[in-house]
Amino acid sequence: MLLNEWIPFSMSTNGPFDLKRTIESGQSSFPTPQSDKLGRYYLVLDLESKGKKVITRFYQKGAKLHGEMVSPMEELTEAQIKEAKKKIRLTLGLQFNLREFYATFKDDPIAPAFQFCTGLKLTRAYDLFESLISSILTQNSSVWKWVGQVRKLKELAGEKFPMEHFMVYSFPSPQNLFRLKYRIKEAKLGYREEYVLKAIEEIATYQIRLDKLRTLSTDKARKILLKIKGIGPKVADMFLLYGLGKIDAPPIDIWIQRGVSAIFFKGKEVSLDVCRTKLVEHYGKWAGLAQLYIYDWIRQKKSIS
Q1: Sequence spans of domains, the chain
Q2: Among 250, 254, 236, which Cα is nearest to 293's?
Q3: Which of 43, 97, 220, 301 is the most buried (most CB within 10 A)?
Q4: Nearest 5°: CA angle at 297, between 100 and 270?
């Protein structure tokens, strides 16, 4: 049965904003959402009300985000609508003003990326567990591949909601995915399957509380993440940045290695550790955001010049 009774909403954005570039830039906050023929993106959000899910669909028109939301269970209250809008705003980084970042580094070597990637916002996970699994699956993988794998996990164990032309899925809880772990092979995760299973077990059995990491410093949270099997420096930083919103944590992969080597070392290839240290020293609290702009810039152009 198709959902109806959609509730419309609109929200302004703080500073430049490009929804399509932001959503499709490969951030591991969440996989690229499904979109319909009208260009609306779909996300399933959990509210604080236990078991309360809200399906949202949204698009950009001018400087505003427009959309609709609906609950598959019961009518949304005013308080729940307000909570859902707040979650959308945080998830899409609408409150974050990029102008300060652009102004601070207007004479920096990455300044050309500001024009090329204008409006690219830093997203944040609406589901920490989904973001962690997404981050693990980015290892030695392309965006389209890990996005497909996360979507498969949703199809295997998440709740499904029928739209006009397709199904949208929520990401399963750690406990539900742990209970259905025998089906994870169907997602074809390759060698990453072992790491995903271990992370699921530790989170489902409360050995690790992802929400507790929010209150820790970046360094302390990073040390805890690195204790999880299969999570190395890059994956830890992916989750710190895109999951927890710690913008001083720059994930380093081959794309960033190429970019940093070209920008700061005259094209001489330097190690991943050296790249991370350089970004942290040079960009300070903005290091994670600078990484995102370098990543999108070089991934789209294939080179920096």
Answers
A1: 7-116, 128-243, 254-301
A2: 250
A3: 43
A4: 100
